[in-house]
């Protein structure tokens, strides 16, 4: 089976994030594999181990994205592809990403493409579905289980806490939700072997794309941090008085009632 | 000159950090209170290849370097001193001597299971009357036909109750000057006459197994001699030099853990209407801790780098061990101080850091012995 994983480098939202000049500051931010893409990598490895074939991890990013690709290789992926847009593109959005991927997949025979459900930075959840549309293949988002039997796939999909069971066929694109699996730690031998696995670097030029072809369809007007959490309030006194005060606060101060 | 870690080193550090935070940290208090060696955690560490970092793949290792190994010990030590000590001892003392001095057969047979993490190894040097002064070793190994027959007693041996093999040092004869020749012999722990007990009630590193070993007419084949008879003493000095880098890394981990906890506490705790991190008295403590930690890290990485590049590293390993372990003790002590009364309580973990750090100033050569080693290198 030809398995592909779409992987994005994101900043770690659990670490401190600073915004200046309408941009997130790269210096000091910690970069990680988008956590949902880790489920995709894990699932790809498991499917390969069960059905044979090869796992290729694809990212669109910059030189530093090599670290996240090497981590996926250390987990057990076979090959990695870095589409480096650092020198060619100023901005990009989900359209840009999906267009570049469409060009990349043009001459590939992918049986299964796995992506994260969303990237935790921009959280659009669009790249996977858009790509599947361009490629004209079925897609299922937020999957929590995937069984493949020959050309057929049986999928459990998370729908706001309920489970929907879907049957479909390969070639197929899925986006991965928490609960699908437990991503492994890259082992030491895995890390050492990752050094020797193939990592191909491409630019949009190599995909016969011009900057105009992938110009973003959206414009970012402003980026800002959420307001700081204010200190909580502990109500005191008799319970009945506390309830009265709570209702009054919710009504008059917070205006939510 | 380049102070940057390689990509592999960065990935190893990140992986071990995540493993330590997710798997070991939630168990750290329990490991200490119950004084129970976490066998299952070691099994997982073995599967991840952590027990084989500095050994080549042909012996079941991961083919990493000493710097990577030091990074791994630091990350584990940052959350749990007990696990860190048992880890460092298993690799540096239990397995490394076989890799450095073993024959091909010994490596295949004894090193491979250790490097693969399928078994643990120990190093039995210390005796009730021979601690800092290893020359005072009383255990004997006498040749009888094709065997050595070993008699004696070892104390304070890390991991021995869970070990498959113990490398035992013993007197095998006298040299021309009439001085004892001390050699190292590989003893499988299931050999008849080997009795191992662990009844110590320790101040710190309570989840790390520490055992006594009694050897009564223990017979092992002569081929179990590690390296040469005469060079046994030199061999374990070399082993201890390497081990010191890992104990230093463990101290660094404890110091870093202390700083992390103290800093975040200071940024949350309000007294006199202000965060205590705004008081200069607290800031100076944090500044000193942070500086000492960075200096310790630099000398550890330098010693590891020297070792990886096959240059002399004995003095730097002693600097690293001495400085990093004393830094750990000071940092843990200040972390308690910054936590006030809360720091004295187990729940806040910094009191455990202090108890764990104390051992590092004693094991694998006391602070005094490190100063002796350094002074000797100065030509005194
Ligand atoms: C938890 C734990 C784990 C251990 N694990 C192992 C292990 O796996 N394998 C192993 O072989 N051993 C192990 N040890 C033993 C450890 O290495 C010894 O405790 C240590 O070397 C000190 O020896 P000692 O306890 O006999 O103290 P002593 O040597 O009796 O020292 C007592 C004091 O005298 C000082 N002193 C001694 N000689 C001199 C000198 N010449 N000049 C100045 N001061 C001096 C020392 O620095 C110390 O302060 C372990 C110990 C502990 C507590
Ligand atoms: C075992 C035990 C028994 C105790 N018994 C009693 C008892 O019987 N009765 C009782 O009332 N209390 C008792 N205490 C409480 C003890 O007195 C307090 O823990 C102590 O006063 C410190 O207060 P704190 O723990 O709130 O720390 P904090 O006041 O929060 O101090 C935290 C850190 O900030 C530093 N700090 C605070 N303010 C400043 C400042 N302005 N400038 C510079 N540094 C500052 C402190 O020195 C400390 O290093 C006990 C505590 C323990 C652990």
Please tell me about this protein's structure.
The complex is a heterodimer of chains A (257) and B (380). Chain A has 257 residues and is of the alpha/beta class. Chain A has two domains: 2-214, Rossmann fold (3-Layer(aba) Sandwich); 227-257, no CATH class. Helix content of chain A is 27%, strand content 27%. The radius of gyration of chain A is 22 Å and the shape is globular. In chain A, 33% of the residues are buried. Chain B is globular. In chain B, the strands form three sheets. Chain B has a four-stranded mixed sheet, covered by helices on one side. A four-stranded antiparallel sheet of chain B has the order 2-3-7-6, covered by helices on one side. In chain B, β4 (163-174) and β5 (180-188) form a beta hairpin. Chain B is 51% helix and 17% strand. Chain B is of the alpha+beta class and 380 residues long. At the A-B interface, α2 and α5 of A face α1 of B. The structure holds flavin-adenine dinucleotide (FAD) (2 copies). One flavin-adenine dinucleotide is lined by residues 269, 271-272, 276, 279, 281-282, 337-338, 340-342, 344 of chain B. Residues 89, 93, 122-126, 131-132, 156-158, 205, 210, 359, 362-364, 366, 368-369, 372 of chain B line the site of one flavin-adenine dinucleotide (FAD).
Short description:
The complex is a heterodimer of chains A (257) and B (380). By secondary structure, chain A is an alpha/beta fold.
Secondary-structure blueprint of this entry?
The complex is a heterodimer of chains A (257) and B (380).
Chain A: E1 2-6, E2 9-11, E3 19-20, E4 23-24, E5 31-33, H1 35-51, E6 54-61, H2 66-75, E7 79-84, H3 94-105, E8 112-116, H4 127-135, E9 139-149, E10 152-159, E11 162-169, E12 172-176, H5 188-194, E13 199-202, H6 239-253
Parallel strand pairs in A: 1-6, 1-8, 6-7, 7-13, 8-12, 9-12
Antiparallel strand pairs in A: 2-5, 3-4, 9-10, 10-11
Chain B: H1 7-24, H2 28-34, H3 39-47, H4 66-79, H5 81-101, H6 104-115, E1 120-124, E2 140-144, E3 147-158, E4 163-174, E5 180-188, E6 194-197, E7 210-221, E8 225-226, H7 232-266, E9 270-271, E10 274-275, H8 280-308, H9 314-339, H10 350-360, H11 367-377
Parallel strand pairs in B: 1-4
Antiparallel strand pairs in B: 2-3, 3-7, 4-5, 5-8, 6-7, 9-10
The complex binds flavin-adenine dinucleotide (FAD) (2 copies).
Domain Acyl-CoA dehydrogenase/oxidase C-terminal (chain B): 231-378
Keywords (chain B): FAD, Flavoprotein, Oxidoreductase
Cofactor (chain B): FAD
